[in-house]
Amino acid sequence: MTLSAKYLSSAAVSALAGTLVFAAPAAAQDTESTGASEGGLTEIIVTAQRREENLQDVPVSVTAISDDQLEALSSSGQDIRALSGRVPSLLVESSFGRTFPRFYIRGLGNTDFDFNAAQPVSLVYDDVVLENPILKGFPIFDMQQVEVLRGPQGTLFGRNTPAGIVKFDSVKPGDEAGGYARVSFGRFNNINAEGAVGGPLGDNVSVRLSGLYQRQDDYVDNVLPSGTTKDAFGGYDDMAFRLQAAVRPSDDFEILLTGQLRDLDGTARLFRANNFTRGQEGLNANFDRDSVSVDGQNEQSVKTQNASARMTWDVGPVSLISVTSYWHGTSTSVGDVDGGFGANFLPPALYGPGDIPFTAETRDSVPELEQFTQELRIASNGNGPVSYQAGIFYFDESLSILSENYSTLGDPLNAPGGVNIVVSQDQQSKALGVFGSVTVDLSDQLSVTGGIRYNDDERDFTVVRSQDSQFPTFLQNPLGTVTRSVSDDTITWDASVAYEASDDINLYARVARGYRAPSIQGRILFPPATATPLEDGVSVAGSETITSYEAGIKSTLLDGRARINLSGFLYDLNDAQLTAVGGNVNANRLINADNVRGYGFELDAELVPVDNLYLTAGLSYNHTEIQDTGLTTAACGGTRVDTFPDVSLCTILDPIVTPAAPFSAAIVNIDGNRLPQSPRWIANWTAKYAIPAGEGEFYVFTDWSYRSRINFFLYESVEFQDASQLEGGVRVGYDTDTFELAAFVRNITNDTSPVSGIDFNNLTAMVNEPRVWGVSAGIKF
Description:
Layout: H1 3-17, E1 36-37, E2 40-41, E3 45-46, E4 53-54, E5 61-66, H2 67-73, E6 90-93, E7 102-105, E8 121-125, E9 128-130, H3 133-136, E10 143-150, H4 154-157, E11 164-170, E12 178-186, E13 190-200, E14 205-216, E15 220-224, E16 227-233, E17 236-250, E18 253-266, E19 291-292, E20 299-314, E21 318-335, E22 361-380, E23 386-406, E24 419-441, E25 446-466, E26 482-500, E27 505-516, E28 519-521, H5 533-536, E29 539-541, E30 544-557, E31 562-581, E32 588-607, E33 613-627, E34 632-634, E35 656-658, E36 667-669, E37 681-693, E38 696-707, E39 710-711, E40 721-722, E41 725-735, E42 739-746, E43 754-758, E44 764-767, E45 772-780
């Protein structure tokens, strides 16, 4: 974050703190659909426990975000990362840009940047889990709402949910014809167009077609000694469609068929060489948001397709549900990961900015991804004192990954040099889950819930590396194919108690055990300094388990004008799977830590102090600590020669076990460190004021999110962290039942914050999105 932006941030925080003392989920244009109505708040229905319930009755820490709230966040064409910081304890970032989002809840996430990365936050899209990171980036459009469930969700949602889940529910076909269309135009020729149309086709069939188109021009110049290419990077074309058909052969049987796809082409994440200064925190004078200096390509494409069928059969006392889904995807991402041009063995005018020890450009591709899931579930009907559900779940994924390393060698044509390393990976994953959950109402005020799930996971991995003739024979690695297989089975469970203290106050307590299946990592683009380089380039992390304790209060106050929900939690994550990103090469290594301890709280609040004024807020505190006295990892690259005898790329803050040497990174102890991308504080707040006029209303809406200091990696250094980030938006418009006109600004203070970095070659930064302004129009029919 720049100095001027931090002063603006402080001023904005002070001004808004006087208005709101809580903090919260994002708000929206349509107050009724986001929880507010004339005279008070409306009920929010969630499906956090796989059945429809009032948010206030659910014994889980959960925040719901409506489609109208999402519209405010995505006005400027933002992708799924727009959710970051908009609910307590949630952070989202990516080193790829609009693809491969990484989610963190309560500090738990995974910084791994490889396509087979296993994350502890699961995405569930219309009752279907999306496992692979390129699927998790599927655009958000035509949504009924999004729910963020915090804490382990292993009973009902299965594996890889020790941190929680983000649950998306799209608008389904209805019995009445209707739809909407809205489009916005903004800075950089940004277009965000979204719409849907649907209705009945005869007596027993309803359909809904929805789509999203987002595009932006290139706006970042590429400045090289050979000349400047104007508007070389930063643009994208991203489109997605969904077609749904609801077929009702009888009153008690329904089939929902869904087909959807995504097609993205655009700029990959821009890496900015030496935008950090050794020994200093924050971006330096090399940083210019509107320009880079790279001699490699920087582009990405993603294509995904999905077909699914959900069948529901009401047989009286119970319902039988089947959810079948197939996903297919391909992806390519090319990045100049050294973030600059040339290398320091060339004349000084031919490399930069700053010191570039060696050139590095990578292409990571997914030639083929297939995911098949099947769930069969039985759920009780009725309103009796006992409700239950049970089921079986099957998961099958086939994944191919191709990773290539190039040497650009200061190519003035901005084209890749020769391929010097190629790595091919294939991974087969299978999982089985059998689960059940029951809730018993012991009285009108007291209920208890218990659930259990059996999990069985298998993963087979193969990898082979080849090198071309650019490299000497002794660096070739014809060691054949390396294989790894992992498997595990375990029990996850949860138990909770809910007590209705009054009509307006509910108390709950919950304990849960979650699980992340064993993982394999085989990024072996560079030869490790070992006797068996190919073998040692593959790492395995065993299963991690979490035991979480949570208690909370959910209250509706001021005659329905205020809703305040507060939860506190404590967890122990045993055998925590961590990704060690660092060292002297662009590598990942999986490790298990003995334990990670976490604790904190979350606060959600909504308030209608007077008619036509709607306020929301959210606040979370998360403390995380790695507890493993002997755990070490490589720190930043040991490639500096200008600071000899200290050759470390960065200023290390952790205890050094083995000092750095030229082209050999320091080994440091990370016991006691907090997790990467784990801010202690996340806050958000919104305000909307409407003035009735004619058939509609004029409104002003503003939303803000804040996060405190983050580290980028497992180790700690002066350079690879950011002190804080504050982003806000404003929307002003006129809205009726049939149309809306508005003007908006996103990142209104033009906050500039590093969100991550690359540490193996130079002090490379990645930054947040720039300020975007524009106008929008929409119709409803």
